[in-house]
Amino acid sequence: MSKSKLINGLWTLGILAGACSAPSQQNENVTAKSLDKVKPTYVTDQVNHDTDDPAIWINPTDPSQSLIVGTDKDADGALYVFNLKGKAIDSLTVRNIQRPNNVDIGYGLQLGDKTVDFAVTGERMTSKLRFYSLPDMKEIHPEGIEVYLGEEGPEYRDLMGVAVYHNPENNKHYVIAGRKNGPQDGTYLWQYEIKSEDGILSLDLVRKFGEFSGNKEIEAIAVDNELGYIYYSDEGVGVRKYYADPEKGNEQLALFATEGFTKDHEGISFYKLDDQTGYILVSDQEANLFHVFPREGSSSNPHEHQLITKIPTSTVSSDGSETSSTALGPDFPHGLFVAMSDDKTFQIYKWEDMARDTLKSKN
């Protein structure tokens, strides 16, 4: 597509200022207010091979000392750890992980007589989940825990997507695993409860769920803990939404973001204005855009997520991304947005630069 056609197709209409609730009619032509790409505040040091997905660990005692954990996707891969200025912390980087695609972070997991924050990544070549305590990045369960046991054929055990869910009502922790290839019978994703006995970590399969179109794959998975929903990108179709609590069933609640994407639907993240409201950001990978939808849905339907705006960024073919609305020191008073870029880096943005005069910021 020519540059002029792209501009005419993507940035023809104005946007609704300050919108956190969606319009009454679906309008996939709502677009970015400016043609200028948002510039990152910092760009991380390069990894050795191929960045794919970031996660943010919030330091509870000093948020300005929070960390970004990002995957280096290769057979000789790694989990890199960066400070908020994008500098790699070599002493915390974990190497010799066999093709880690995605990473997510959980808080307050009971492990023996202590609680730990943790990062989990999927080791694609072994079909294992690898767990590391934070902030020291020490492995909790040496050599990981295998998933998709009993699944026939290696093509259905090719681990990619990973997301963590914490149910605040019963204090249970879960991990949701996705894969490169999966069936179209509503069992593409497998959800495990994370358990600990005498300090030893284990996984208990609690459900298989998730529709798949058969078009491309499912990798990006994100969980809204406060509202209790799982979202994932059915890459060639749109974003699907389910309850995160397995006891609430496997009914699909929504399929949105089905129009206006250039090619692949990818990374999903949330900017939370409070426990109920905010934004869902979805990567339009090849277009270097992030489509923004209301986290709380519409005034009449919490599962109606209509487009608010599109944000052009400086990323190159961005896959995974993460957002936090926590004030993270003087550089990021309203939180930050971090996204993978296909030049072996992650780009770190001030939220207010992403929001411009269109979206709200948490005070």
Characterize the structure shown.
A hairpin with a 3-residue loop joins strand 23 and strand 24 (345-350). The longest helix is centred in the first third of the chain and has 8 residues, at 3-10. This protein has 2 helices and 24 strands. Mean pLDDT is 91; it is low at 1-30. The protein has helices spanning 3-10, 351-355, and strands spanning 42-43, 51-57, 67-72, 77-82, 94-97, 100-111, 114-123, 128-134, 145-146, 159-167, 172-179, 189-197, 200-209, 218-224, 229-234, 238-243, 254-256, 265-272, 278-284, 289-294, 309-312, 321-324, 336-341, 345-350. The strands form 6 sheets. The chain has a 4-stranded antiparallel β-sheet. It starts with a helix and ends in an 8-residue tail after the last helix. It is mainly β. 4% of the residues lie in helices and 43% in strands.
Give the SSE map:
Layout: H1 3-10, E1 42-43, E2 51-57, E3 67-72, E4 77-82, E5 94-97, E6 100-111, E7 114-123, E8 128-134, E9 145-146, E10 159-167, E11 172-179, E12 189-197, E13 200-209, E14 218-224, E15 229-234, E16 238-243, E17 254-256, E18 265-272, E19 278-284, E20 289-294, E21 309-312, E22 321-324, E23 336-341, E24 345-350, H2 351-355
Antiparallel strand pairs: 1-24, 2-3, 3-4, 4-5, 6-7, 7-8, 8-9, 10-11, 11-12, 12-13, 14-15, 15-16, 16-17, 18-19, 19-20, 20-21, 22-23, 23-24
